[in-house]
Amino acid sequence: MQPSFRHQQTIAINPAELYDPRPNGYSHVVIAPANARWIFVAGQGGEDASGLLAKGFNSQLQRCLSNLRIALAAADASLQHVVRLTVLVVDHDQQRLDLISKALRKAWGDHHTPACTLMPVPRLALDGMLVEIDATACIGATEATAA
């Protein structure tokens, strides 16, 4: 089994029998602590607070991650508390996968990466919307008590 690591009572596991997902910015398995406070973040798109959609895939992707950080902060959480992501992509291809992988690696840095499912889709909620990311986060009981 590839090394597993802990972050604030959450455990990420990447079994040796499965390919190493870390270069793509995610983990195969994340175990959340007992008595955790769960946070569910709706899909965040590439629009700003006024609803203006960023132009181009990479700009929308960066805005999705920024919006995700804002939503998590509203619940006293951060990216490091995220245990699962769903990434929805219009017109998915290798170039978009590479941009997503790079953005997730950069966003999580040296912290454990969440489990993640990428789903190519024919369309998202808004005309011109190219990517959307939803998240599930958890804060361990000891963290939640300290916060």
UniProtKB/TrEMBL annotation:
InterPro entries assigned: RutC-like_sf, YjgF/YER057c/UK114
Residues forming coiled coils = none
Q: Which domain of life is it from?
A: Bacteria
Short name of one Pfam family: Ribonuc_L-PSP
Q: Where are the transmembrane segments?
A: none
What name does UniProt use for this protein? RidA family protein
